[in-house]
Structure to design on (289 residues):
């Protein structure tokens, strides 16, 4: 099934939400970074959050960057997304595995550890919006819910799920639900009840539930669906951007590379694509300086 996000608003206009199916996106991240199951779950949850938050951007050109900087063995997780549904991501240590937690599940919290979530949004203003909040659980969904409430003052519920079997991503997806100004205690109680009745995200997705179904279950059967966007992996690296990066090193550094190595290979950390520059090509780069 095609990966996509769908947004909606409750009948009374007081609760909004966005839900996503991201199985193919997370599988591509797994293949590009060769993540073990623990890293697949952590990176996949973060990438799903990025897709959901990207769907909340107003313009296609708007961009956001997420960094989860924990002190656990997985290291930093970074995800970039935009208003076109394009997402890319990376994790410092894709090879890490830990024993299962007390519930017999992947110990994502142990892999992430304690630290801070950073979010940067570039929506065309003079300076990007910067927000952050502490990692409160390491399970990622709870950490984003706290981020929205503490840093952006928007009471939110977040569900993120990735089901991994060996190196294969079986299903992935999630939701973000936010309470809007004017919502009453009754609205909040009803939402909490709907969330409490919701089974595991991965179980629901494995059963074939759609993002639209998720919103109907969470916001009510009379939810108005607003927008549907395809979500896919896309990295913005290119040979020309890599050449510009090499030029930024300066003439002396390029001369040093030519003298000591004779060639250069630059690897994009987000997609693992490699860009090779021969001695002749490096000489041409140097001539442009």
């Amino acid at each position: 099934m095609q990966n996509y996000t769908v947004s909606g608003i409750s009948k009374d206009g007081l609760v909004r939400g966005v839900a996503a199916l991201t199985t193919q996106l997370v599988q591509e991240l797994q293949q590009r970074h060769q993540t073990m199951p623990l890293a697949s779950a952590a990176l996949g949850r973060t990438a799903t959050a990025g897709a959901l938050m990207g769907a909340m951007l107003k313009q296609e050109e708007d961009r956001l960057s997420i960094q989860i900087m924990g002190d656990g063995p997985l290291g930093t997780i970074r995800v970039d997304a935009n208003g076109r549904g394009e997402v890319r991501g990376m994790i410092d240590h894709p090879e890490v595995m830990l024993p299962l937690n007390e519930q017999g599940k992947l110990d994502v919290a142990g892999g992430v550890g304690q630290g801070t979530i950073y979010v940067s949004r570039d929506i065309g203003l003079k300076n990007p919006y910067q927000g952050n909040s502490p990692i409160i659980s390491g399970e990622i969904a709870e950490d984003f819910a706290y981020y929205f409430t503490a840093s952006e003052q928007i009471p939110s519920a977040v569900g993120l799920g990735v089901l991994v079997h060996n190196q294969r991503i079986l299903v992935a997806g999630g939701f973000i639900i936010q309470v809007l100004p004017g919502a009453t205690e009754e609205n909040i109680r009803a939402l909490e009840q709907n969330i409490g009745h919701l089974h595991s995200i991965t179980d629901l997705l494995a059963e074939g539930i759609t993002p639209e179904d998720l919103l109907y279950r969470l916001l009510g059967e009379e939810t108005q669906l607003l927008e549907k966007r395809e979500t896919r992996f896309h990295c913005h690296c290119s040979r020309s951007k890599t050449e510009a990066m090499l030029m930024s090193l300066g003439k002396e550094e390029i001369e040093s590379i030519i003298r000591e190595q004779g060639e250069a290979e630059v690897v994009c950390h987000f997609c693992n694509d490699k860009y090779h520059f021969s001695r002749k090509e490096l000489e041409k780069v140097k001539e442009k300086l």
Summary: DSSP finds ten helices and 13 strands in the chain. Residues 68 and 207 are 30 Å apart (CA to CA).
